[in-house]
Design a protein that fits this description.
The complex is a heterodimer of chains A (112) and B (115).
Chain A lengths: L8 E5 L4 E6 L7 E8 L6 E6 L4 E2 L4 E4 L5 E6 L8 E9 L13 E6 L1
Parallel strand pairs in A: 1-9
Antiparallel strand pairs in A: 2-7, 3-4, 3-8, 5-6, 6-7, 8-9
Chain B lengths: L3 E4 L2 E4 L5 E7 L6 E7 L6 E7 L5 E2 L8 E7 L2 E6 L8 E8 L7 E2 L3 E5 L1
Parallel strand pairs in B: 2-11
Antiparallel strand pairs in B: 1-3, 3-8, 4-5, 4-9, 5-6, 7-8, 9-10, 9-11
Classes of the chains: A mainly beta (112), B mainly beta (115).
């Protein structure tokens, strides 16, 4: 699976949009971009994933550049409960036997 | 999304004893389950992958005789930490995936403290 690079930490004011970047310049054509987050002392939580089109769900939006070498996770109105470590992971979909491999992620701190 | 549970949520044990952690998929059949370990201020590290009815595949550096994994059914996997030592104190997280799904669902984790 392709390697990803994320900033170690980011700050965001409550109510503002949080834009979390991820670089994945070696991504292959059949690899998806997944985002998970981990709130302190809990298991990771799935957020969103995409291949090349932008995606949106009730939690977030995922913007993938046209060359697919980078992406941005957008939390449109961050709340204090969004404070967590956010992981960007690139992998081939439907590889039932292979696990998600986590990097260091970005620690997002949302403050009032 | 699908629900994965773990039991217990936290356990404290004496050095030299064995501890069993259960992982259950509550509303789907998990053909593959994964076990991770997370030390303070570090990321999740994959320990092993298990497919129902088969022996687990362990990552390099993980002792299979110390961390016994059983995946006897499509909804239950267990991790037994044998002869636990203080350095085994960690946050253990299981994860499950169905045969047809892209998503990998995670349990809430088990905090193990070995005295």
């Amino acid at each position: 699976d392709a390697k990803t690079t994320q900033p170690p930490s980011m700050d965001c004011a409550e109510g503002r949009a949080a834009n979390l970047p991820c670089n994945h310049s070696t991504i292959s054509g059949n690899e998806y971009v997944y985002w998970y987050r981990q709130i302190h002392s809990q298991g990771p939580q799935y957020i969103i994933h995409g291949l090349k089109n932008n995606e949106t769900n009730e939690m977030a939006s995922l913007i993938i550049t046209e060359d697919r070498k980078s992406s941005t996770l957008i939390l449109p109105h961050a709340t204090l409960r969004d404070t967590a470590v956010y992981y960007c992971i690139v992998r081939v979909a439907k590889q039932a036997g292979t696990a998600l491999i986590f990097g260091k992620g970005t620690t997002l701190s949302v403050s009032s | 999304g699908a629900v994965v549970s773990q039991h217990p949520s936290r356990v404290i044990c004496k050095s030299g004893t064995s501890v069993k952690i259960e992982c259950r998929s509550l509303d789907f059949q998990a053909t593959t389950m994964f076990w991770y370990r997370q030390f303070p201020k570090q990321s999740l590290m994959l320990m092993a992958t298990s497919n129902e009815g088969s022996k687990a595949t362990y990552e390099q550096g993980v002792e299979k005789d110390k961390f016994l994994i059983n995946h006897a059914s499509l909804t239950l996997s267990t991790l037994t930490v044998t002869s636990a030592h203080p350095e085994d104190s960690s946050f253990y997280i299981c994860s499950a995936r169905s045969g047809s799904g892209n998503e990998q669902f995670f349990g809430p984790g088990t905090r193990l403290t070995v005295l």
